[in-house]
Design a protein that fits this description.
By secondary structure, the chain is mainly α. Helices cover 44% and strands 6% of the residues. β1 and β2 form a beta hairpin. The chain is elongated.
Length: 223
Amino acid sequence: MTDNTVSSTARVLGAGLRALLVLTLVCGVIYPLAVTGVAQALFSDKANGSEIKDQEGRVVGSSLIGQRYDLPPKDGEEAPAPDLRWFQPRPSNGLGSNSVNTQYSLILSGATNRSGDNEELIQWVKDAKAAVVEDNSTATYKVRAADVPADAVTSSGSGLDPDISPAYAKLQVHRVAERNSLDVKEVEDLVAEHTTGRLLGFMGEPRVNVLELNTALGDLARD
Protein backbone atom coordinates (compact mmCIF):
# COMPACT_ATOMS: atom_id res chain seq x y z
CA MET A 1 0.00 0.00 0.00
CA THR A 2 2.85 2.35 0.88
CA ASP A 3 4.67 1.65 -2.38
CA ASN A 4 1.46 2.29 -4.33
CA THR A 5 0.92 5.58 -2.47
CA VAL A 6 4.46 6.74 -3.18
CA SER A 7 4.18 5.71 -6.83
CA SER A 8 0.83 7.46 -7.19
CA THR A 9 2.17 10.61 -5.54
CA ALA A 10 5.22 10.58 -7.82
CA ARG A 11 3.00 10.27 -10.91
CA VAL A 12 0.82 13.17 -9.77
CA LEU A 13 3.85 15.32 -9.02
CA GLY A 14 5.41 14.36 -12.36
CA ALA A 15 2.22 15.21 -14.23
CA GLY A 16 1.95 18.51 -12.39
CA LEU A 17 5.56 19.37 -13.16
CA ARG A 18 5.14 18.52 -16.85
CA ALA A 19 1.98 20.63 -16.99
CA LEU A 20 3.83 23.50 -15.31
CA LEU A 21 6.68 23.30 -17.80
CA VAL A 22 4.35 23.06 -20.81
CA LEU A 23 2.14 25.94 -19.65
CA THR A 24 5.21 28.05 -18.83
CA LEU A 25 6.59 27.40 -22.31
CA VAL A 26 3.26 28.06 -24.08
CA CYS A 27 1.95 30.97 -21.98
CA GLY A 28 5.24 32.50 -20.89
CA VAL A 29 7.33 32.14 -24.05
CA ILE A 30 5.50 31.05 -27.21
CA TYR A 31 2.32 33.13 -26.77
CA PRO A 32 4.11 36.41 -25.84
CA LEU A 33 6.54 35.96 -28.72
CA ALA A 34 3.68 35.26 -31.14
CA VAL A 35 1.66 38.29 -29.99
CA THR A 36 4.76 40.52 -30.09
CA GLY A 37 5.66 39.25 -33.56
CA VAL A 38 2.17 39.88 -34.95
CA ALA A 39 2.05 43.33 -33.33
CA GLN A 40 5.44 44.31 -34.71
CA ALA A 41 4.62 42.95 -38.16
CA LEU A 42 1.16 44.53 -38.52
CA PHE A 43 1.02 47.42 -36.03
CA SER A 44 4.63 48.28 -35.22
CA ASP A 45 3.93 52.00 -34.72
CA LYS A 46 1.11 51.43 -32.21
CA ALA A 47 2.88 48.52 -30.52
CA ASN A 48 5.89 50.73 -29.83
CA GLY A 49 3.82 53.50 -28.23
CA SER A 50 2.95 55.64 -31.29
CA GLU A 51 6.33 57.35 -31.00
CA ILE A 52 7.06 60.60 -32.82
CA LYS A 53 10.62 61.25 -33.97
CA ASP A 54 12.29 64.45 -35.09
CA GLN A 55 14.39 64.97 -38.20
CA GLU A 56 17.42 63.48 -36.44
CA GLY A 57 15.59 60.31 -35.44
CA ARG A 58 15.23 61.15 -31.75
CA VAL A 59 12.00 60.14 -30.02
CA VAL A 60 10.27 63.31 -28.81
CA GLY A 61 7.06 61.82 -27.42
CA SER A 62 3.91 59.89 -28.20
CA SER A 63 1.16 61.07 -30.53
CA LEU A 64 -1.37 59.84 -27.95
CA ILE A 65 -0.34 62.06 -25.03
CA GLY A 66 -0.41 65.85 -25.00
CA GLN A 67 2.64 67.87 -23.99
CA ARG A 68 3.08 71.41 -22.78
CA TYR A 69 5.45 73.90 -24.39
CA ASP A 70 6.56 76.21 -21.59
CA LEU A 71 9.57 78.33 -20.79
CA PRO A 72 11.67 77.33 -17.76
CA PRO A 73 9.83 78.62 -14.65
CA LYS A 74 11.30 81.66 -12.97
CA ASP A 75 11.91 81.93 -9.24
CA GLY A 76 8.67 82.58 -7.40
CA GLU A 77 6.59 81.95 -10.50
CA GLU A 78 3.47 79.90 -9.77
CA ALA A 79 3.14 78.59 -13.32
CA PRO A 80 5.65 78.72 -16.18
CA ALA A 81 4.86 81.00 -19.11
CA PRO A 82 4.11 79.36 -22.48
CA ASP A 83 6.92 79.30 -25.02
CA LEU A 84 5.26 81.25 -27.81
CA ARG A 85 7.58 79.95 -30.51
CA TRP A 86 5.45 76.79 -30.53
CA PHE A 87 1.84 75.90 -31.16
CA GLN A 88 0.16 75.62 -27.78
CA PRO A 89 -2.07 72.70 -26.73
CA ARG A 90 -5.32 72.84 -24.83
CA PRO A 91 -5.20 74.02 -21.20
CA SER A 92 -4.53 71.28 -18.66
CA ASN A 93 -6.06 72.63 -15.47
CA GLY A 94 -7.26 69.17 -14.54
CA LEU A 95 -3.77 67.70 -14.21
CA GLY A 96 -2.73 66.84 -10.70
CA SER A 97 0.75 66.51 -9.26
CA ASN A 98 2.51 63.45 -7.93
CA SER A 99 2.64 63.82 -4.15
CA VAL A 100 2.97 60.13 -3.29
CA ASN A 101 6.45 59.37 -4.58
CA THR A 102 8.22 62.64 -5.25
CA GLN A 103 11.31 60.85 -6.55
CA TYR A 104 9.57 60.66 -9.92
CA SER A 105 7.86 63.37 -11.95
CA LEU A 106 4.69 61.78 -13.27
CA ILE A 107 1.96 62.99 -15.62
CA LEU A 108 -1.33 62.53 -13.80
CA SER A 109 -4.56 62.57 -15.75
CA GLY A 110 -7.67 64.29 -14.46
CA ALA A 111 -10.54 66.62 -15.27
CA THR A 112 -11.43 69.93 -13.64
CA ASN A 113 -14.47 68.33 -11.97
CA ARG A 114 -16.26 71.68 -11.94
CA SER A 115 -19.73 72.45 -13.23
CA GLY A 116 -20.36 74.90 -16.05
CA ASP A 117 -21.58 77.59 -13.62
CA ASN A 118 -18.66 77.21 -11.21
CA GLU A 119 -17.17 80.66 -10.56
CA GLU A 120 -13.58 79.41 -10.54
CA LEU A 121 -14.05 77.62 -13.88
CA ILE A 122 -15.68 80.70 -15.40
CA GLN A 123 -12.73 82.81 -14.27
CA TRP A 124 -10.29 80.27 -15.72
CA VAL A 125 -12.05 80.51 -19.09
CA LYS A 126 -12.07 84.33 -19.02
CA ASP A 127 -8.37 84.47 -18.11
CA ALA A 128 -7.49 81.86 -20.74
CA LYS A 129 -9.41 83.75 -23.46
CA ALA A 130 -7.70 87.02 -22.59
CA ALA A 131 -4.29 85.29 -22.70
CA VAL A 132 -5.04 83.67 -26.07
CA VAL A 133 -6.06 87.04 -27.53
CA GLU A 134 -2.97 88.79 -26.16
CA ASP A 135 -0.44 86.05 -26.99
CA ASN A 136 -1.60 85.50 -30.56
CA SER A 137 -2.08 89.10 -31.66
CA THR A 138 0.80 90.47 -33.69
CA ALA A 139 1.57 93.81 -35.29
CA THR A 140 -0.23 92.74 -38.47
CA TYR A 141 -2.83 90.33 -37.08
CA LYS A 142 -5.31 91.04 -34.30
CA VAL A 143 -7.23 88.24 -32.59
CA ARG A 144 -10.78 89.01 -31.49
CA ALA A 145 -12.30 87.36 -28.43
CA ALA A 146 -15.07 86.01 -30.66
CA ASP A 147 -12.44 84.16 -32.74
CA VAL A 148 -11.19 82.06 -29.82
CA PRO A 149 -12.53 78.47 -30.08
CA ALA A 150 -13.71 76.51 -27.04
CA ASP A 151 -10.76 74.10 -27.01
CA ALA A 152 -8.35 77.03 -26.58
CA VAL A 153 -9.81 77.86 -23.16
CA THR A 154 -11.01 74.51 -21.78
CA SER A 155 -9.15 71.34 -20.90
CA SER A 156 -10.23 67.89 -22.05
CA GLY A 157 -11.69 65.28 -19.73
CA SER A 158 -8.26 63.68 -19.24
CA GLY A 159 -6.17 66.84 -19.45
CA LEU A 160 -3.88 64.92 -21.83
CA ASP A 161 -5.62 65.58 -25.17
CA PRO A 162 -2.86 65.60 -27.83
CA ASP A 163 -5.03 67.38 -30.41
CA ILE A 164 -6.44 70.85 -30.98
CA SER A 165 -9.05 72.04 -33.47
CA PRO A 166 -7.93 73.39 -36.87
CA ALA A 167 -9.49 76.72 -35.82
CA TYR A 168 -7.20 76.98 -32.79
CA ALA A 169 -4.17 75.96 -34.85
CA LYS A 170 -4.96 78.60 -37.53
CA LEU A 171 -5.43 81.25 -34.85
CA GLN A 172 -1.81 80.64 -33.74
CA VAL A 173 -0.26 80.74 -37.22
CA HIS A 174 0.70 84.43 -37.33
CA ARG A 175 2.30 84.39 -33.89
CA VAL A 176 4.25 81.19 -34.65
CA ALA A 177 5.41 82.55 -38.02
CA GLU A 178 6.59 85.81 -36.43
CA ARG A 179 8.41 84.12 -33.53
CA ASN A 180 10.24 81.72 -35.86
CA SER A 181 10.95 84.22 -38.67
CA LEU A 182 8.90 82.15 -41.11
CA ASP A 183 6.48 83.15 -43.82
CA VAL A 184 2.82 82.95 -42.75
CA LYS A 185 1.98 80.87 -45.84
CA GLU A 186 4.64 78.31 -44.88
CA VAL A 187 3.11 77.86 -41.44
CA GLU A 188 -0.44 77.76 -42.85
CA ASP A 189 0.64 74.98 -45.21
CA LEU A 190 2.22 73.13 -42.28
CA VAL A 191 -1.07 73.26 -40.36
CA ALA A 192 -2.99 72.05 -43.42
CA GLU A 193 -0.59 69.12 -43.86
CA HIS A 194 -1.10 68.04 -40.23
CA THR A 195 -4.88 68.42 -40.12
CA THR A 196 -6.66 65.07 -39.84
CA GLY A 197 -10.25 64.86 -41.04
CA ARG A 198 -13.19 62.98 -39.54
CA LEU A 199 -12.76 59.23 -39.17
CA LEU A 200 -14.42 57.50 -42.14
CA GLY A 201 -15.60 60.94 -43.20
CA PHE A 202 -18.29 61.37 -40.55
CA MET A 203 -17.02 60.27 -37.10
CA GLY A 204 -15.48 62.79 -34.71
CA GLU A 205 -14.13 66.21 -35.59
CA PRO A 206 -11.16 67.43 -37.68
CA ARG A 207 -8.08 67.76 -35.47
CA VAL A 208 -4.42 68.72 -35.40
CA ASN A 209 -1.90 66.76 -33.35
CA VAL A 210 0.17 69.41 -31.54
CA LEU A 211 3.30 67.29 -31.03
CA GLU A 212 3.40 66.20 -34.66
CA LEU A 213 2.85 69.79 -35.80
CA ASN A 214 5.52 71.22 -33.51
CA THR A 215 8.01 68.51 -34.52
CA ALA A 216 7.49 69.47 -38.17
CA LEU A 217 7.74 73.15 -37.22
CA GLY A 218 11.07 72.53 -35.49
CA ASP A 219 12.38 70.78 -38.59
CA LEU A 220 11.16 73.62 -40.82
CA ALA A 221 12.69 76.30 -38.60
CA ARG A 222 16.06 74.54 -38.69
CA ASP A 223 16.13 74.18 -42.48
